[in-house]
Amino acid sequence: MPHEAVDDMYREEILELYKSPSNFGELKNPSHKHTSYNSICGDEITVQIIVKGGKIDDIKFGGSGCVISMVTASLLTDKIKGANVSDVKKMKGEDVLSLLKSKLTPSRIKCALLSFEAVKEALK
Amino acid sequence: MKITNEIAKQIKKDFPIFSHNLGLVYLDNAATTQKPASVINAVKNFYEKDNANVGRGVYSLANRAMKRYDQTRTVIANFIGANSGEIVFTRNTTESINLLAYVISKIIPKGKDEIVLTEMEHHSNLVPWQELCKRNGFKLKFVKITKDFVLDMKDFNSKLSDKTAIVSIAYASNVLGTINNVKLITRLAREKGAITVIDAAQAIQHIPIDVKHLDCDFLAFSGHKMMGPNGIGVLYGKKELLEKLSPFMFGGGMIEKVTFNDASWAKTPEKFEAGTQNIAGAVGFAEAINYIKKIGIENITGWEAFLLKYALKRLNEVKGIKTYHPNSGEKVPVVSFTLDSIHPHDIAEMLNEKKIAIRAGHCCAMPLMSVIKANGGVCRASFYFYNTLEDIDALVDSLREIQEKFK
Ligand SMILES: Cc1ncc(COP(=O)(O)O)c(C=O)c1O
What is the spatial distance between Cα B358 and Cα B29, in angstroms, rounded to a whole number? Predict the structure, then answer.
């Protein structure tokens, strides 16, 4: 893993997003909901979704975790809000990782994919 | 020779990892220690000059290999005040405890069905006993820790009873650094007729251990945490107890006589060592102990106490650091901490950018994390005698920078 890439992980914009993430909080009447855990570090993310007409009408996430898991959750929820559920279901891990625009060390990939896992489970 | 900061810097040069990774600040010694060139060379030399399987050949090479393997048993036995017949080779502490948990029922008197552990156990000294409980219908009891992160001896006394079959505790905690009063605990347990098991994985590399003095029944440790190779560990057991136990793995090397329908076992300790053993690992392990002896375990203890004091002082200068470490009593050089509400993984990752290696997470002690209310895990810096004051300065300076970034 090149040194610069890891450094990149904690760049200003990422840390700013960590301090004030999008879509953080709770929904009143979610139609879909799931909590995923990362047993390695104790991270926990709950995703709440309202699906209307086959689209993600609204989505919020809550819980606690490291910069990587929280920031990815913020980016992911922004990305899929308004999207077709069928398209979201087709998304792959790499699509989510590419949102971060940083290379991750192997141990952090699980952190980054935690919210994605919760979304997929919620939509099952 | 007493170790000073200058001497520690010299000692570091014995460890090739630091010349291959310039600037590396290695503070994850509780996970595994680095290896001196002498240990690496011992393993290499064994394969180059003496390699053969042991206990099977009559030729000179096999005899030499056998001799090296047996010598290691003696070196280890001398190191902990045991007899060589009381040293069973395993892969690591985890295997040692598993071995015991598999076979120990045989020596537990009827009517005893409780196992006393503590809240500070590593998963290795917890999960094997949980499984034994599932098999035998035994119950687990956990001795509490106090607010100062030491064992609550009052609670220990209340958990101990005539029903106690086994008391199994960590000599030193891999998270808190606490050294437990193993001698006292062993004595109290014995008064109740309980079998005593000591998980010495985090103690043996730091302090002198004498099993006769401790009077414990069993003691487990890993070579890799004391500069030895991976995949070689020890289960010490009192001779008369090992003799009563049945083997838990069967096959070559552990038998006396085999017919098509039955077999009898070799003597202790060989009856516990089925299959081809990690002979090169054992040879390297002996060399690691020789290295410790050359430095002097007392000198190691002394320098580490100095390092630990310095580390605690410097860490506590940083506002927002919370340490999970006792203020009183004896300790190994392991300090767990959190910084503000920054996730430990982020801290470890950012320290990695500065070539500083620490552990982050639950450190294989998930139940303890909830007791000390660190559910997101902790950061853990753990030292060995090749660490220097500069290593600690690098850690603390970087922690301050990380803290700034999150402000
Ligand atoms: C207290 C304690 N017990 C047991 C172990 C397990 O050691 P190993 O992984 O070598 O089996 C460790 C390792 O971290 C430990 O710290």
Answer: 9
